[in-house]
Amino acid sequence: MPKMTFVLSNGERKEVEAENGVNVLEIAHKNHIDLEGACEGSLACSTCHVVIDDDWFDKLEEPTEDEEDMLDLAFALTHTSRLGCQIEMTDELDGLVVTLPEATRNMAVDK
Ligand code: FES
């Protein structure tokens, strides 16, 4: 199974299994990683904002216009920002590294 790494806001790196076809937001939730995703992937929020590692950014599919619009509202936007719920895992993305933006601080969503 492919794997991906989340870099948490405290700098800790967490490598997790990332099943093909599952998006980064769902992978985060399965692994108790604190990424909010308030609209559960329906492109109506920007709380699933993640920063993609430079090396990986160009390997992702281009964001849709709707995603771009939502991203514009994200806090602490960077030039490699994406919405986690729009990135679906594939074998090509095995090893993907994403960072949780420091400024997105949510209530703990453990469980
Ligand atoms: Fe709302 Fe991704 S969870 S846009």
Task: Describe what is shown at a glance.
The chain is an alpha+beta fold and 111 residues long. It is 16% helix and 19% strand.
Verbal overview:
The structure is a single chain. By secondary structure, the protein is α+β, with helices and mostly antiparallel strands. 16% of the residues lie in helices and 19% in strands. The protein is built from 3 helices and 5 strands. A 5-stranded mixed β-sheet has the order 2-1-5-3-4. A hairpin with a 5-residue loop joins strand 1 and strand 2 (13-17). The model is unreliable at 103-111 (pLDDT under 50). It binds FE2/S2 (inorganic) cluster. FE2/S2 (inorganic) cluster binds next to loops.
Number of helices: 3
Strand content: 15-25%
What ligands can be seen in this structure? FE2/S2 (inorganic) cluster
Q: Stretches where pLDDT falls below 50 for ≥5 residues?
A: 103-111
Q: What is the arithmetic mean of pLDDT?
A: 91
Overall radius of gyration = 12 Å
Q: Main beta sheet: strand number and arrangement?
A: 5 strands, mixed
**Portion of residues within helices:** 10-25%
Element order: H for helix, E for strand: EEHEHHEE
Overview features:
about 110 residues; alpha+beta; 5-stranded mixed sheet; 3 helices; 5 strands; about 15% helix; about 20% strand; disordered C terminus; binds FE2/S2 (inorganic) cluster
